[in-house]
Amino acid sequence: MEKDVLILAIESSCDETAAAVVKNGRDVLSNVISSQIELHKLYGGVVPEIASRKHIEKINQVITEALEESHTTLDDLDAIAVTYGPGLVGALLVGVAEAKAISFARNIPLVGVHHIEGHISANYIENKDLEPPFICLVVSGGHTHLVKVADYGTYEILGRTRDDAAGEAFDKVARAIGLGYPGGPKIDRLSKEGNADAIHFPKAKIADAPYDFSFSGLKSAVLNYLNGCQMKGIEVNRADVAASFQKAVCDVLVEHAMLAVKESGLNKLAIAGGVASNGTLRAAMEQACAENGIRFYRPSPIFCTDNAAMIGAAGYYEYMQGTRSGYDLNAVPNLKLGER
Ligand code: KG4
Ligand code: ZN
Question: CA-CA distances (angstroms) from residue 103 to 9, 75, 99, 154, 157?
Fold first, then answer.
């Protein structure tokens, strides 16, 4: 039997300080997440400097917990995987410096991981049979990518957003209807009380780019609708706005994903990123896949939003392919998928 590969993974690219221990890329032995949401709520969004300061305060505690919960010590580790981009530079630097320090002190191999590669790899954790190639829709607060996962670590971006990311649109619309931060989960919840067909919001299509997305027009349409109601003295039904907006986003995401899967001939679709935890999107995608005979994969909600287990999954495949980062590893805030 081959020896197990144990990886300690660290994630600090935005507002969660997270550490996990992952065995052989797919078995999560621990997954500790310290969320800063309550702190940033006061400001209506993530404040980068506050995020960095909170990461430095929490990181050792989170790593200690992840090791304890998994009954692992630093001596057992084969590698340390850490998110080094994209994300907030100050936030990333905390995780990268920590990973380098442990790697240096204990002489443990270091593997820098792309945050979006992590989100995609979250699908490997609970779907032991999932192997590339497949199509993955990545929908997070900073990214909306339709990706062909050709192999472990090999990605072809088929489409991307031209303006706002899907999660960003959720957050902005939530703010406009007074729901506060973070908007996605709040819209998800409120929309259950609303009628998704009450208001018709436009679905943007981009000529000659069937896989690209645009959400800024939809956001403006919601703002115009709210202004119109205010001018006419009509009371806004916030649940209807939330449900109708969410439907417009989900319809576009489903349409584009279906087209990409069909044209690729791959027959397998995965979703990833914070917005992939959205109940309506999961149900709509599942139904569309069932109707089209496509195998559908999605991580549990806890593995959709930022976590370190997904970094451990991605780090494992990078490690097995020979990827090693040097002690000069730096944070790369705008790192592109597939770049090293
Ligand atoms: O992947 P993630 O945790 O962080 C980034 O890498 O950006 O995604 C965060 C985004 C936020 O915009 C948040 O509002 C959105 O994911 N989100 C959701 C839901 N949960 C989180 N959007 C819609 N429905 C949800 N249930
Ligand atoms: Zn993320």
Answer: 12, 11, 6, 26, 32
Residue 313: the pLDDT is 98
Per-residue pLDDT band at 113 (split at 50, 70, 90) = very high
Q: What tokens were used for 67?
A: 């090791």
140 lines ligand 1 (CB under 6 A): yes
The backbone torsions φ and ψ at residue 97, rounded to the nearest 5 degrees and listed phi first, read: -65, -40
**Other CB atoms within 10 A of residue 292 CB:** 13
Q: What's the distance, Cα to Cα, between the start and end of the chain in Å? A: 32
Pocket test for ligand 1, best of 121, 275, 278, 311 (most atoms within 8 A of CB): 275
- Residue 250 near ligand 1, beta carbon < 6 Å: no
Instruction: Give the pLDDT score at 279.
Output: 98
Pocket flag, ligand 1, residue 85 (CB < 6 Å): no
Q: Atom 13 in ligand 1: which residue has the minimum CA distance?
A: 184
CA dist., res. 285 & res. 291, Å (int): 10
DSSP state, 203? -
Helix axes 166-176, 216-232, angle to 10 degrees: 10
Q: Are 273 and 304 in contact (CB under 8 A)?
A: yes
Tokens, residue 283: 């149900």
Claim: this prediction has a pTM higher than 0.90: yes
Nearest ligand by distance to the CA of 183: 1
